[in-house]
UniProtKB/TrEMBL annotation:
The keyword DNA damage does not apply. The lineage of its organism: Bacteria, Pseudomonadati, Pseudomonadota, Alphaproteobacteria, Sphingomonadales. It comes from the Bacteria. It comes from Sphingopyxis flava. This is Chloramphenicol 3-O-phosphotransferase. SUPFAM superfamilies: P-loop containing nucleoside triphosphate hydrolases (SSF52540). InterPro entries: AAA_22, P-loop_NTPase. Pfam families: AAA_22. The keyword Protein biosynthesis does not apply.
Amino acid sequence: MTHRDDVFVAGGQPSVTYVQREEEHIERSFARAVATPNQIVSLSGPTKTGKTVLCRRILGDRQYVWIDGGQVRTSDEFWDKVAGELNIPLEREVTKGGETSFEIEGSVPLVTTASGSKLFSRSVTERQRIASMSSALATMLDQRIMLVIDDFHYLDDEVRTTIMRNVKGAVFTGLKVILLSVSHRVFDAIKAESELTGRFTAITLPNWSKADLAQIPRLGFTELKVPVPDALITKLCDEAQESPFLMQKFCWEICFDNQIEEASLFSKNKIAPSYSVDDMLRRVSNDAGLPIYQKLSAGPQIRKARAKRPLKDGGTADIYQAILLALAATGPKALVPYDELRQELNNLLVEQVPQKHEITSALKHLAVLAREFGKGAAIDWNDDTREVNIVDPYLRFYLRWQVRKP
Ligand SMILES: Nc1ncnc2c1ncn2[C@@H]1O[C@H](COP(=O)(O)OP(=O)(O)OP(=O)(O)O)[C@@H](O)[C@H]1O
Ligand SMILES: [Mg+2]
């Protein structure tokens, strides 16, 4: 019988609760893009919207090499990794009678002598790199193995461009390359630089609708034979911040708290009438959003202490804390217009609402801090539309349950 851990999978590959998102035709368009010859497929979408899950699902048991952008720093490392995944032997170092020789299996051994070692060993490494890259490409082409680079945005600009130049030729002769990234901006840059315009099929994952999110508890609780009132599902959808990850997490927590492990034949599984969903949400929000919130509320490092302003509810807040409180007070919404933010600051602070330039400067700093913190920006300030975008669902969730005044 299926265990709750295999039903609600937060952070892994769900099967029972996998949602196809049919209305958006996402699976079909992605599958079509992957099938189209001589194209590099890019899949972008906000963090935790299901890029990795969708890609693994569509690839099924086809052959691919999967590289995580977060785990390689240089293009050399990248090709070594690809070669490693393909079991292509790397250079071997063997010492024979005082001479060190580097051998690449299947090719001519290259010998270094004590006198010329430095220069020569560099060229050996060079040759070995090229060997690992070209044999990797040849193997993938020959055996029809695809190349997937997940979290592509984690790589440096330069590394991304180099890798794209490296694969360009192979793509034209049939290599399939799939790139996953939180932002489509990285692809625009590459297309321009590596003359790959017209060779990209870009797929963007839209945000999750409440109807799609609702499928997760419906599928999962049905599997576990747990009756769930519609009102509860609606509430979970309202609180999931468009994130399937959060929805999976909520459902798992509900099971755990109610001792639901596996489907029971005697319909013993149920959610206690006294069960507090709010308590669960508060607890989960703390785990999910605390690190980024702490980083943002501390503001950029400065030597002297920042001015504190008194709050109507008591206590004080510096400009960063005040802005986060004001954003939380909007709901928080994912997009907060400047005027609304200012209005909320007015409602919060006893007097002296910060000046316009002070607020916008703090917003810009917040965006920089957010970018430093992790992949993509958790929060962003758009100077043209004059809107704050709280991109990260976890941050919104944290602001909603931990920061917003009840
Ligand atoms: N189609 C889906 N159906 C049900 N749950 C899903 C689906 N897609 C994603 N999820 C849930 O969301 C979680 C995050 O998905 P995934 O890791 O694919 O997101 P991502 O966009 O790759 O995130 P990141 O930006 O961190 O790489 C999954 O572990 C799963 O719990
Ligand atoms: Mg991913």
